[in-house]
Design a protein that fits this description.
This protein is mainly alpha-helical. The chain is built from seven helices and six strands.
Length: about 180
């Protein structure tokens, strides 16, 4: 009986070792290039060295998959940075079933790793569903409402104070009534 238990234990250990090897990520591709799976590996093993490598952006792949699942469940999120218009835009987007989250992001991409794949997939779906100019239109309406509701707050855009643009139109419209 003791030998039988040792035999079963040995079989269990061998099977576990084989399972561990199957789950390990490949270190080299079929061309012998080093496989890099994240930014940390890139900076540690590749950056500044004359090494042939292949980028496998698993983070981006996982983020896209998560976004697709969320979209299928009816969840849409717009990520942007509009501090003055945030509340207005959130309210407007909510009417279309879109949640808004503030996000500052960098345009720097290290070694081919894309950090905003979830956000990009969500934006692409919003554009597909509502059109390419949808977010811009919502922003412009929110911006105009902000300027009208805050006439004492300077709002410069492209060298123009938008109060002159929007408040004069409002005054002209009101005086003609």
């Amino acid at each position: 009986m003791k030998k039988f238990l040792i035999f079963l234990f040995t079989i269990f250990i061998l099977i576990s070792c084989n399972q561990r090897k199957k789950n390990e990520l490949k270190k080299y591709d079929e061309n012998g290039k080093l496989m890099i799976y994240n930014e940390e590996q890139y900076f540690k093993l590749v950056k500044g060295k004359n090494v042939s490598f292949t980028i496998v952006d698993t983070f981006c792949t996982n983020q896209k998959s998560r976004a697709i699942k969320d979209i299928k469940r009816g969840k849409l999120i717009y990520f942007g940075f509009h501090p003055r218009e945030f509340k207005k835009m959130s309210t407007m987007l909510k009417k279309y079933g879109i949640e808004m989250k503030e996000q500052l992001k960098s345009d720097l991409i290290f070694g081919g790793f894309r950090p905003y794949c979830y956000e990009e997939k969500m934006y692409d779906e919003i554009c597909r569903k509502y059109g390419n100019r949808f977010i811009d239109s919502i922003f412009k309406v929110a911006q105009k409402e902000y300027v009208i509701e805050n006439p004492d707050v300077e709002y410069m855009e492209d060298g123009i104070d938008l109060r002159e643009k929007y408040l004069n139109k409002k005054t002209a419209t009101n005086s003609s009534l």
